[in-house]
Amino acid sequence: MSLAHRLVSVRRRLLTALICAALPGTFAYAQSCSAPWPEVHPVFTSRIEYGDRVRKSDPYIAVRINGKLAKMLLDTGSNAHVIWDARLLGEGGDNATHETQTLDAIASSTQAKGALLTLDDATGNEHLQRFYVIAETPLMADGFSGIISPQSLAQEKVSVLNFKDDCFFVSDRFDPEAGGRYRTEAVGAIPNSDRVMGIPLDVPGGRVPVVVDSGAYRTTLLGSLMHSAPVGRDRTTNVDLLGNVIVGKRRTRLVDITINGRHAPRHPVVPASVISEKGIVSLGAVGMDLLAGNVIFHDGDRNRFAFVETAGRVEVSQ
Questions:
Q1: CA nearest to 147, candidates 84, 100, 95, 96
Q2: CA–CA separation, 246 and 260 (whole Å)
Q3: CA distance linking residue 271 with residue 217, whole number of Å
Q4: Helix (H, G, I), strand (E, B) or coil at 227
Q5: pTM, rounded to two decimals
Q6: How far apart are CA 151 and CA 191, in angstroms?
Q7: Among 18, 81, 15, 72, which Cα is nearest to 46's?
Q8: Of 12, 57, 105, 200, which is the most exposed, with the fewest CB atoms less than 10 Å away?
């Protein structure tokens, strides 16, 4: 081995050690997150933390962007990576382009520039990713530097969001039912070219298209779909991906929901006033109130979305 090659190898090992030291506990998760599928070799792995651990809402991961430690929201409701922390850019923001475009959120919109930045996990896996760069948002005060879109990171690969054991990984395609330890319901995803994580959701009266949104605490549905559902106790409040509060004047509705073959009776749902046409035509969004405590498998290119369950388990977490 040449001296130059040895120096490169040492530098890579040192970088991996530094990242693992900076992201405490993450390396152990990198070893165990994909352990149920021994044939899987993740290309990206991270521990999942939560802004609210009781509700398991606001899931986030600790990564390095351009070599700098960053706390990034893990948001399936976004089909792109976003940063608002200018410290993650090169000196003087040299990584960002001068071209701008509009980035839309639920309650607001803002101008964004593009940037190609390196994204590293705790095991030293490095990915060159495109980010939208926007101005600082209210979420900066909570320590968040931006958003990672799992499906955008995965691209033609698959992602597993384990909200039960709190870890996330991306890998080449595999069958989560291989070996017979786990089962999935073959409901699928809604095909689209924008990598929106959309699925069909069963509600009284039929099946409707919705977005899977780990960035939202509450599940939402178009209000006209549930006008006859019983009124819940909670008033509607939410926050969009730019940190702006969406305050509703109505109370939640108690709706019988079947998601991916699993039934959640009289589930509190936030009424939405309009149909969304961003990426897919959506009549609502599934939030962490239904996702928390579950293991999710997603393959956008093969139109597969599923809860992964131990064989024989069929109840939905509440």
A1: 84
A2: 28
A3: 14
A4: coil
A5: 0.83
A6: 13
A7: 72
A8: 12
Are 3 and 10 within 8 A, CB to CB? no
Tell which residue, 123, 130, 141, has the closest CA to residue 16: 123
Span 268-317, pLDDT tens digits: 998 888 888 877 899 999 999 999 999 999 999 999 999 999 875 444 43
Q: Which residue has the tokens 């090992």?
A: 13
Strand partners of residue 162: 167, 295
Which residues, 6+ apart, have CB-to-CB distance to 304 below 8 Å?
158, 188, 189, 297, 298
The residue among 41, 58, 62 whose CA lies nearest residue 50 is 58
Query: DSSP string covering 266-281, please?
Result: EEEEEEESS-B-SSS-
Q: Pick the closest to residue 41 from 119, 120, 123, 118 (CA basis).
A: 123
How far is 133 from 75, CA to CA, in rounded Å?
16
How is residue 289 written in tokens? 């109130």
Name the nearest CA neighbour of 119 among 111, 127, 130, 110: 127
204, 257 in Cβ contact below 8 A? Answer: no
Task: Give yes or no for a contact between 213 and 287, defined as CB atoms under 8 angstroms apart.
Answer: yes
Work out whether the CA dihedral 299, 303, 309, 310 comes out positive or negative: negative
Q: What H or E segment, with its residue span, contains residue 153?
A: helix 150-154
Tokens of 55: 């509700």
Q: Which tokens sit at 250?
A: 């109505």
Q: Which amino acid is at 102?
A: T
Residue from 87, 137, 83 nearest 115 by CA: 83
**98 and 49 Cβ atoms separated by less than 8 Å:** no
Which pLDDT tens digit goes with each residue over 88-134? 987 655 555 556 676 665 555 677 889 999 999 988 899 999 999 99
- Distance CA(216)–CA(243), nearest Å, equals 11
Choose among 210, 310, 190: nearest CA to 259.
Answer: 210
Q: Which residues of 158-190 are buried (b: 16+ CB within 10 A; e: fewer)?
A: bbbbbbeebbbbbbeebebbeeeebbbbebebb
- Whether 238 and 213 have beta carbons less than 8 Å apart is answered as no
